[in-house]
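MODEL INPUT / OUTPUT PAIR
PAIR INDEX: 1
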Amino acid sequence: MQRFSHSSPALVVALVALFVALSGTAFAVGSAVVPLAKRALVADNAKKLNGQTPVALLAQAAKQPGPASSAASLITIKTAAWSLAPRGEGNFTATCDPGQKVIAGGWADPGDWSSGFQSLPTADGTGWTINIFTTSSAPSTQSGSVYAICLK
């Protein structure tokens, strides 16, 4: 009867490579199963929501009395127009209604020939001011809007 002596280094390396390769395949199969389980869970949740989209759910929540609907009624957006000739510069302010405080603001330039600097609330906190500069290469007078987001 023939007995095996010590394993050769080549056999040991081959066995290690085999186990590493098999464990990588097992991991790949396992990670492919996880997305399938997630999709099944999402499909189950969609059934619970009667197929409604997130937008539809938000609209439905806004109609309900309570914090979601009352928060929307506390915010207003006020606008003010601005207009500048080429190479013109000026400060423009959108002001909140009396008793309201500004919480944010911004501006729009539909022609994209102007730049805004120092976008900030007014000193008394009732409006939003933007310093706007129109480039000298603008084809004509540029105009847009300044926005103040106000809290009642």
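PAIR INDEX: 2
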Amino acid sequence: MTRREPLAASALPRAAWRTTILVRFAHCDPAGIVYYARFFDMMNGAIEDWFAQSLGLDYHAFIGPRRIGLGYAKADADFFTPAIMGDRVTFAVLVDRIGGASLSLDLHAHRGETPVLSARLVMVTTSLDQHRSIPLPDDLRAAVHRYREACP
């Protein structure tokens, strides 16, 4: 696996959707830094907000009434610098690839201009009733295409 190089916040596309998360006591391990697994919780929260605020889609409706899973087939991250309680970490979402039943998303997190992490999440749409992958729903595919065109 190749390590990603840190990318400065100013190098991200201006149109990339961003959200800032306050690092709380509950995010930190006994060393006083964000426990790596909590970063994955933060990233999923950022994706949920990206659905609503940028794509105009209700993430929770996919899982609830629509019975469409939005799980990750792959999730990896490169960590560049620790984040500590009280930091404000800004996450930006980029779309790397739109597949038949999956989305490959790149997330970049920064504290100011300082890179904190870079992650790749491969989200797969699944039937929560049949427990198998299904094609990306048309509304999700269209929204992600619009986002990707606005934010290459």
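PAIR 2 NOTE: The mean pLDDT is 96.
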